Amino acid sequence: MIMYADFQVEANKLVALAPELMSLGDTDAIRKAFEALPKVHPPMEYLWVNAYSRYMIDYEALKKELNID
């Protein structure tokens, strides 16, 4: 859960910064910041499957929003 919370905090910072970087045309900085986001590892126990699934949904949505392939 802590890794997911860390991901959310950093992703929110990136979303706030992205419009400025996009207006400058700095897509490389956006890609690097996206790749540097904290990663949530697949769960080893069944109880964490829901949290990991939510992370993957958020990760893919952010990737699409930032137009990263």
What does this structure look like?
The chain has one domain. The chain is mostly helical. 71% of the residues lie in helices and 0% in strands. The protein has helices at 2-24, 27-35, 49-65. The chain is built from three helices and no strands.
DSSP summary: helix tally: 3
Instruction: Output mean pLDDT.
Output: 89
Class inferred from helices and paired strands:
mainly alpha
Outline the biggest β-sheet.
none
Number of domains: 1
- Tally of extended strands? 0
Roughly how many Å is the radius of gyration? 13 Å
| Basic shape | elongated
Order of helices and strands: HHH
What are the low-pLDDT stretches, counting only 5+ consecutive residues below 50? none
Work out the helicity level: over 70%
Q: Termini separation (Å)?
A: 27 Å
How large is the share of residues in beta strands? Answer: under 5%
Brief characterization of the structure:
Helix content is 71%, strand content 0%. The protein is mainly α.
